[in-house]
Hints:
alpha/beta; TIM Barrel; 8 strands; 39% helix; globular; binds phosphoenolpyruvate
Amino acid sequence: MKKLIAANWKMYKCRHDATQTIADLAAGLGRSVPADREIAVFAPFTALAASAEALAAHMPGKAVFLGAQDVYPAVEGAFTGEISPSMLLDCSCRFVLTGHSERRHLLGESREFVGEKTAFALAAGLDVVLCIGETLTEREGGRLEAVLGAQLEAGLANLPRDLEPQRLVFAYEPVWAIGTGRVAGEKEILQAHALARELVKKILPASYAKMRILYGGSVKPDNAAKIIGLDNVDGLLVGGASLQAESFAHIALA
Ligand code: PEP
């Protein structure tokens, strides 16, 4: 299974900056991606088309894919401000994020809505990175398993029956580690990833073993190699440290 290293640019970068970052990333990667890796860049909506052009120009045919940070679960319609799967596919996106903690906690997205988006996006042809993770209060209250279980149960409701395992990726992102500089410890990552795989097994017994589980939360160039080498860690989802091409290239090659 190829490791997936993903950059979440959040609400940063207009077109020019996005294009320049991709050109710099191509230079940082030496214009090639190791055979056991895939890379994804989750750009803001307004920079998707420019990022797709930059990827085609600087890394044609390389395993570097474009993703969007959100999607609405409808084909089209009166949904002001929203974006459909076909619009994202039209911008050359392969991936979309669902359930990012900033959307769950800052924008109030329910577990059920995350599940709707996940199923709809997959059925429409996008590959999905479904984010799960607990808050500090939930962890300290001994609720890790209950929280991940509930997020996965709702997040994986109504999936297309013939789903190929490589089309669905999980990202375990403890909320207390996102953007805080406080990376989860080795033991915490091992425990949560093993637990997540067990929980996915209950829902998708035929394909859970072939699905990737990424770790996200304050990944930096100096801790990436150690984290990506842990059992059950099939890649990384990187926020802050993905904004600079040099540091993201370092992480992608770790
Ligand atoms: C994220 O946005 O998914 C993330 C993990 O952010 P950071 O790397 O900045 O903690």
